[in-house]
Please model this.
Amino acid sequence: MTEPGGGSGGAGGPARSRVPSREERRKRFWYDFMRFNLTGWSVVLPTLAGLALGAWIDGRWQGPFSWKLALMLTGLALGCLNAWYWIRKKERER
Model:
């Protein structure tokens, strides 16, 4: 037998595990979904912007190297840094 108020998981006991409700799980799903979605777009948009700018420069001025590739990789690097910063900031807020 267990003693009232003991650590056996009785009402209000310290070993009581809390099962999240369906509503809490649903909210958590959408929070995680939006977080991953925003992280993805924070990488994709600078990459596409660099690609578009590089294509425009390549169309205007011919050079010894591809501006399209250089600016796409620059946009990708900036997007990854942006996503890393944003995730780190959100983790600190938790």
Summary: The chain has one domain: 22-93.
